[in-house]
Design brief:
It is a single chain. The protein is of the alpha/beta class. The protein has one domain: Hypothetical Protein Aq_1857, Chain: A (Sandwich). Helix content is about 15%, strand content about 45%. It has 3 helices and 9 strands, in the order βββαββββαββα. Strands 5-4-7-6-3-8-9 form a 7-stranded mixed sheet. A two-stranded antiparallel sheet has the order 1-2. Strand 4 and strand 5 form a beta hairpin. It is globular, with a radius of gyration of 18 Å.
Length: about 130
């Protein structure tokens, strides 16, 4: 994945050029047994997305939410960092989350019954960095 960034060209010329720079790092994901089973039972047509949403509540507080979901038509893969499981299953990772996530992280299943869903498996400090930094 490549991202374009404008950089000044030469000293004193004032002209600008477009230089290609590597995008965010590729992530290595690990699915535990519950996540692997969930992925097998819920196949996807394309990569799944680690979405990162930030909302402001009426008192001005910031609410961050991370969700693993199916890719939608509105998702442009070029706007995401990428990650993959050991078997090659790919994930698109919101760049705001990618800036806060460790290079390697896990997936697990949380919830009960119909509320079961795929979720990130992070240490408490990693959750703090992801949601509050």
């Amino acid at each position: 994945m490549i991202v374009a960034a404008a950089l000044a060209h030469g000293a004193g010329t004032g002209g600008g050029i477009i230089r290609l720079m590597p995008a965010a790092k590729d992530f290595q994901l690990h699915a535990d047994a519950k996540a692997r089973e969930w992925l097998d039972v819920h196949p996807a047509d394309g990569p799944r997305v680690v979405a990162y949403d930030v909302h402001r509540c009426c008192g001005g507080g910031k609410i961050c939410q991370v969700k693993v979901r199916a890719q939608s038509r509105k998702d442009d893969p070029d706007d995401f960092a990428t990650g993959a499981l050991e078997d090659g299953t790919t994930f698109l990772i919101d760049r705001r989350a990618a800036a806060r996530l460790p290079a390697r992280f896990g997936l697990t299943v949380r919830g009960i019954g119909r509320l079961k869903h795929l979720d990130l498996d992070l240490e408490s400090e990693q959750w703090g960095t992801l949601l509050y930094d």
